[in-house]
Amino acid sequence: MVTSDPDTPPAAPVLTSIDGILDLHAFHPKEVPDLIREYLRSCRAAHITEIRIIHGKGKGVLRETVHTLLRREPMVRNFRLANDRSSWGATLVDIYPPDVPLPPRCAPASKAPVLVSVVPGWYRLLQRIFVKR
Prior knowledge:
about 130 residues, alpha+beta, Ribosomal Protein S8, Chain: A, domain 1, elongated
Protein backbone atom coordinates (compact mmCIF):
# COMPACT_ATOMS: atom_id res chain seq x y z
CA MET A 1 0.00 0.00 0.00
CA VAL A 2 1.41 3.36 -1.02
CA THR A 3 0.72 6.31 1.23
CA SER A 4 1.56 9.90 0.59
CA ASP A 5 3.95 11.65 2.94
CA PRO A 6 2.12 14.42 4.87
CA ASP A 7 5.35 16.46 4.94
CA THR A 8 5.56 16.56 1.14
CA PRO A 9 3.93 19.69 -0.29
CA PRO A 10 1.36 19.18 -3.06
CA ALA A 11 2.55 19.67 -6.61
CA ALA A 12 2.38 23.29 -7.69
CA PRO A 13 0.15 24.11 -10.65
CA VAL A 14 1.98 24.53 -13.92
CA LEU A 15 1.46 27.91 -15.56
CA THR A 16 1.24 27.91 -19.33
CA SER A 17 0.59 30.64 -21.83
CA ILE A 18 -2.84 30.95 -23.38
CA ASP A 19 -2.73 30.42 -27.12
CA GLY A 20 -6.42 30.08 -27.98
CA ILE A 21 -6.37 26.27 -28.26
CA LEU A 22 -8.01 24.18 -25.54
CA ASP A 23 -7.67 20.39 -25.77
CA LEU A 24 -10.22 18.67 -23.55
CA HIS A 25 -8.75 15.17 -23.91
CA ALA A 26 -6.71 15.49 -20.69
CA PHE A 27 -9.65 16.57 -18.52
CA HIS A 28 -12.40 14.72 -16.72
CA PRO A 29 -15.90 15.47 -18.10
CA LYS A 30 -16.96 16.96 -14.76
CA GLU A 31 -14.23 19.58 -15.09
CA VAL A 32 -15.24 20.72 -18.57
CA PRO A 33 -17.93 23.34 -17.75
CA ASP A 34 -15.77 25.32 -15.31
CA LEU A 35 -12.70 24.85 -17.48
CA ILE A 36 -14.37 26.25 -20.59
CA ARG A 37 -15.82 29.26 -18.73
CA GLU A 38 -12.45 30.11 -17.20
CA TYR A 39 -10.61 29.58 -20.47
CA LEU A 40 -12.99 31.89 -22.32
CA ARG A 41 -12.54 34.56 -19.64
CA SER A 42 -8.76 34.21 -19.77
CA CYS A 43 -8.71 34.42 -23.57
CA ARG A 44 -10.90 37.50 -23.52
CA ALA A 45 -8.62 39.17 -20.96
CA ALA A 46 -5.62 38.30 -23.16
CA HIS A 47 -7.35 39.80 -26.26
CA ILE A 48 -7.64 36.37 -27.92
CA THR A 49 -10.97 36.36 -29.73
CA GLU A 50 -10.63 33.23 -31.89
CA ILE A 51 -10.55 30.01 -29.89
CA ARG A 52 -10.32 26.37 -30.88
CA ILE A 53 -11.79 23.82 -28.48
CA ILE A 54 -10.74 20.25 -29.25
CA HIS A 55 -13.32 17.82 -27.88
CA GLY A 56 -12.72 14.81 -30.11
CA LYS A 57 -15.12 12.98 -32.38
CA GLY A 58 -16.34 9.96 -30.39
CA LYS A 59 -20.08 9.69 -29.82
CA GLY A 60 -20.57 13.45 -29.68
CA VAL A 61 -21.52 13.69 -26.00
CA LEU A 62 -18.66 16.01 -25.11
CA ARG A 63 -19.24 18.06 -28.27
CA GLU A 64 -22.88 18.61 -27.27
CA THR A 65 -21.80 19.56 -23.75
CA VAL A 66 -19.37 22.12 -25.16
CA HIS A 67 -21.97 23.54 -27.55
CA THR A 68 -24.57 23.81 -24.78
CA LEU A 69 -22.10 25.73 -22.63
CA LEU A 70 -21.17 28.02 -25.52
CA ARG A 71 -24.83 28.82 -26.22
CA ARG A 72 -25.25 30.03 -22.64
CA GLU A 73 -22.05 32.05 -22.39
CA PRO A 74 -22.66 35.77 -23.06
CA MET A 75 -19.12 36.47 -24.30
CA VAL A 76 -19.49 34.01 -27.21
CA ARG A 77 -20.26 35.79 -30.47
CA ASN A 78 -20.67 32.57 -32.46
CA PHE A 79 -19.25 29.07 -32.81
CA ARG A 80 -19.07 26.38 -35.44
CA LEU A 81 -17.48 23.03 -36.11
CA ALA A 82 -14.02 23.20 -37.61
CA ASN A 83 -13.97 22.68 -41.37
CA ASP A 84 -10.41 21.35 -41.57
CA ARG A 85 -9.11 17.81 -41.09
CA SER A 86 -10.44 17.68 -37.52
CA SER A 87 -13.99 18.44 -38.79
CA TRP A 88 -16.46 17.60 -36.03
CA GLY A 89 -13.64 16.89 -33.52
CA ALA A 90 -13.08 20.59 -32.82
CA THR A 91 -15.22 23.68 -32.38
CA LEU A 92 -14.13 27.17 -33.41
CA VAL A 93 -15.38 29.90 -31.11
CA ASP A 94 -15.46 33.68 -31.68
CA ILE A 95 -15.78 35.79 -28.55
CA TYR A 96 -16.27 39.50 -28.02
CA PRO A 97 -13.09 41.51 -27.37
CA PRO A 98 -12.66 42.89 -23.83
CA ASP A 99 -13.35 46.48 -24.90
CA VAL A 100 -16.79 45.58 -26.32
CA PRO A 101 -19.67 45.39 -23.83
CA LEU A 102 -21.39 42.02 -23.77
CA PRO A 103 -24.90 41.91 -25.22
CA PRO A 104 -27.66 40.80 -22.87
CA ARG A 105 -28.61 37.20 -23.30
CA CYS A 106 -32.20 36.16 -22.97
CA ALA A 107 -32.90 33.01 -21.04
CA PRO A 108 -33.30 29.93 -23.21
CA ALA A 109 -36.88 28.92 -23.81
CA SER A 110 -38.00 26.44 -21.22
CA LYS A 111 -38.88 23.05 -22.46
CA ALA A 112 -42.09 22.69 -20.52
CA PRO A 113 -43.84 19.46 -21.29
CA VAL A 114 -46.69 19.84 -23.69
CA LEU A 115 -49.73 18.00 -22.44
CA VAL A 116 -51.24 16.10 -25.30
CA SER A 117 -54.05 13.70 -24.81
CA VAL A 118 -52.76 10.66 -26.59
CA VAL A 119 -54.73 7.49 -26.18
CA PRO A 120 -52.55 4.38 -26.33
CA GLY A 121 -53.24 1.95 -29.13
CA TRP A 122 -54.15 -0.88 -26.77
CA TYR A 123 -56.83 1.31 -25.18
CA ARG A 124 -58.39 2.13 -28.55
CA LEU A 125 -58.39 -1.57 -29.39
CA LEU A 126 -60.19 -2.40 -26.14
CA GLN A 127 -62.75 0.33 -26.85
CA ARG A 128 -63.49 -1.16 -30.27
CA ILE A 129 -63.92 -4.61 -28.78
CA PHE A 130 -66.00 -3.82 -25.70
CA VAL A 131 -67.83 -0.56 -26.39
CA LYS A 132 -71.09 -0.84 -28.29
CA ARG A 133 -71.63 1.55 -31.11
